Amino acid sequence: MNIPCILIPLIVGLICALLGYLLGKLLSKNNSDSSSLKNDLDACLQKSNQYSKTIANLEAELANAKKVTSQSFASVPDAPKFLFDSELAASVFGKKIKENDLKIVEGIGPKIEELFHAAGIKTWQAMSESSVEKLQAVLDSGGERFSVHTPGTWARQAALAYQGKWQELKDWQDKLDGGKE
User: What is the pTM of this model?
Assistant: First the structure.
């Protein structure tokens, strides 16, 4: 009976020694893996620093380019000025055209032109820069009698008139029905 009592601590001791040995091996592998991970992390941090410097350089270049661009365009007017050629317009339309006559836009008559003038849209350029929603709001302000009109093409027609593209405007208007496509 005494013999098995001695064997139990001996077997437990051997098992503990074996587990300690295996645990030590396992931890030494993890240490080498962690040093590899540390090296990888250091490499990533170096790349990150390089990218940060590159981004800072690009932002500085962009700011400089914006400054140069704003200085170079300071002397350029906002919109190009097109010269009105009444003779060319008259030759295409077969009638005398006055500059900034909104009635040249198909779908706009004298009363609608009055509405737009009252709303501050007095030129082809102003109409060409207006959204369809804004043009519709001007029509809506005139009451129900103007609700049948659709200003979907009016801004583009006005742009063609402003740019002096009379033949293109005339050809397009020949395809339109009361200013509608």
Answer: 0.55
